[in-house]
Amino acid sequence: MARYQLFYWPGIQGRGEFVRLALEDAGAAYDDVARGKGGTDKIMAMMKGQGEKHPPFAPPFLKSGKVLIAQVANILFYLGPKLKLAPRDEASRLWLHALQLTVTDFVKEVHDTHHPIATGLYYEDQKPEAKQYAGSFLKERAPKYLGYFEKVIEKSGGPFVLGRKVTYVDLSLFQLVDGLRYAFPKAAKRIEKKVPRVVSVHDRVAKRKGIKAYLASDRRIAFNEDGIFRNYPELDA
Amino acid sequence: MARYQLFYWPGIQGRGEFVRLALEDAGAAYDDVARGKGGTDKIMAMMKGQGEKHPPFAPPFLKSGKVLIAQVANILFYLGPKLKLAPRDEASRLWLHALQLTVTDFVKEVHDTHHPIATGLYYEDQKPEAKQYAGSFLKERAPKYLGYFEKVIEKSGGPFVLGRKVTYVDLSLFQLVDGLRYAFPKAAKRIEKKVPRVVSVHDRVAKRKGIKAYLASDRRIAFNEDGIFRNYPELDA
Fold it and tell me: Which end of chain B is more exposed for a tag (fewer CB within 10 A), N or C?
């Protein structure tokens, strides 16, 4: 098996992190291409479709042999059974994928807490709108999404979304909790009280051998104010 | 083969429409459950997870035999080969799925043109922000997304996204063009000039037997101001 090649912006966890966590948990061999020399140029070239039959719209994308796969949930759908982070039967795979696509929707809303008006504008140019967006996000949307995952874990019997075995969705839930704690420490404390099973998934994932080693390594980029989860204290409530 | 059961809000095309178009093009037997008696209650019950092992987060979802599938792109991924609207080989299916997920992202941004601050608020309570959002959407985002699909069709050799055979992604592109024309007639005219291949997909899809019959039937709900694509003239430019 050739090494996987992950293409994502260097310098941020961003959407690429959901893929990194799966690769790292499984101990898979991969290159984080854009963190090497000239990496950003390589991303841009592939998006322009130079020599690519299937040019992706945006990073992250993964090269596995000859196959190029874009979109986080699609990448994880592909990797899941290979990394033993998803069952092989169709019904379970589709269910897990629906859950991951719900993570995707949630991540977009997290992003929009600091960019509600336009991705092309700076945060500084949309601060009052961001405050309003973040307010309803923290009051309504985040509890709704996390409450949904809480119910899913409860129904599965736990401790993970599918039951006893960890999946890539659980790794993503770890990232959501971790990110919310970084971006909105006060609100996260309040929201977490109602979703103990989700918090327990976070804690269990953090202790897994591959994840623990990854988090302690310099491969884990620190959260920062260029990523999805940004710590702007004025948005926390 | 049992009939498919589609669960989606009655009264709007919304996200359910992307699934309806695939079912209708293929002439598949399906029930649009919530348009029958007590339909909305049935949706709510399934989301509450009453008796459902895999409760969905939001409509649309599709019941196929014992399998319940949520998220538009996931449903289409499942239906694609069965309805002969996708090839069966893995690489093509993943590529098509990435394209559909890009449609999903685009649809969310269309929705946000009238709801940039909070889905829980009325449009009337976020009009200035909507105008700003819609401005950059029409100037930057819509051309970027459609330009991407234009390039994809060009690379495939056309006339469809994968080449000679129509796929569910082409049906979705029909819906995007149709919706943009309804919501933003002036801007659509301008934007379409740069994406002739996308417009050609729209026109070819509109003439397909199943789609033509569907559009002329009362099963096609008219665009309206409760859906994703809303005609608010003040947002058009």
Answer: N
